[in-house]
Amino acid sequence: MGARLTLDHLLWRMRYAHPDSELVAAGTAQRFAEAADSIENLAHTLRSRWEIGGGDTVAVLAFNTIEHFRLLFAAPLLGAAVHSLNPRVPADSLAAQAFRPYPRLVVVDETVLEHRSVGANARAAVAELERAGVPIVPVRGLEPAVPGAELPEPAEESTAFWFHTSGTTGAPRSYPVSHRDVLLHALSQASAEASGLRAADRVLALVPFCHVNGWGLPFTATLSGASLVLPGADLTASNIAERLRRDRITVAAAVPTVWFEVCRRLAETGEAPPPALREVLTGGAAVSQQVVEQVRDVLGAGVAGAWGMTETMAMSTYEREQPGVHTGRFAPLVEARVTAGRLEVRGPFVLGDPDWFDTGDAATLDAQGRLTLLDRHKDLIKSGGEWIVSARLEQRLCAHPTVAEAAVIARPDPKWTERPIAILVPERGHRIEVAQLRAHLAACFPAFWLPEEFTVVDRLPRTPVGKLDKRALRRTHTGGGSAPA
Ligand code: AMP
After folding, report:
1. What is the pTM of this model?
2. In principle, which of 240, 323, 362, 410 could form an S-S bond with 374, CB 3.0–4.6 Å?
């Protein structure tokens, strides 16, 4: 059979089209040709040691490491799916997500379990999986097996990955992504006006793989032959600056918050700009004009801003002229329209295909075909590229004996994009103690979920149908009628 829209084709390209491109991680470099062999070896291990086969799911809890990269290819080669778990969501949601769908195996990177900020969360979720009897394998437990019979050829329509939508309520909803989706998406991303990656590029993949496979970069890079550099656990600005310099990175992808931090670090230390960086890819949240200018002045690079969502496999538009203003033109295979102010999209790898998908974003499309985001209809808060579910904070706040009513809204923040603030009505005869409420929330949520500010009011504004009027709250408490676009 000839080339098909399956991940095997990417392996073929690694071996025969770009064998000398590199996969770089933790100070080691491997040629694409050898990386393809390692992937195939891992597929044999998964099959012979763990009996992974068609229809199975392998969940992975790891940072962007070489092992995680290999798993993204190896399990789908067997017709199995990979489910990369996000250790930054609260432990109960993480555990719930990990069971959708039920995994045959969970591969865990010890560095996640030991991590300062997400370790406790990850350990709690792993404990729950263990209690349910799911085999937990440390990454280092995946030693190579002796290759057995030839690997099967997965079908184009077979599931390669499971993604989670954030949803308005934050309730976990997972859905399958096929080999065909991944290949079409990689082709779309590899086009010139999209990521524009070339074989001469060296790409730093900072977006965690649990976010839509790190915006699909492992596949766009292996398709186009661009060398891929994986950062591992250390995502501090100083380490990123060091990687940009030492690995002679030409393109790097991360949410705007990361670029804010990296630029600040370089401006403070007076370090020289990275020697080879030509472009920063950023999206997932609005990039401010301030960050665009800093990337240009401090890093000496251009900015390609992008709009996208999990449901579109991320990065669906690209804007290089005015990324602080517009989010740009749609990448190949994604079509868009604005209906009553709401952005709808469709395409072969967009959720709900062939129907139009309602994004929940308010936007305009101008006569030049450029998308401009205005507002989000959802009430989720996006902080540093991660979601904070206001409804869950509100429920927990209301469970405290001193709180009668609670609203949590986003306040624009130059570094994090948005930060939560809480507006509370006290229970009759009670006083609200901020320290108590913080401790009450900290028992359930990661530290970055905790509101920056707690404001006490007599009553909360309501819409005519009695719903909390968050627009009115934003007007009063954040100085704007809407979340920042
Ligand atoms: P997610 O579900 O995590 O993939 O987030 C998707 C949502 O993030 C979109 O529906 C938008 O509300 C927001 N978003 C993504 N990219 C941008 C951008 N470039 N500018 C503003 N908001 C964005």
Report:
1. 0.88
2. 362
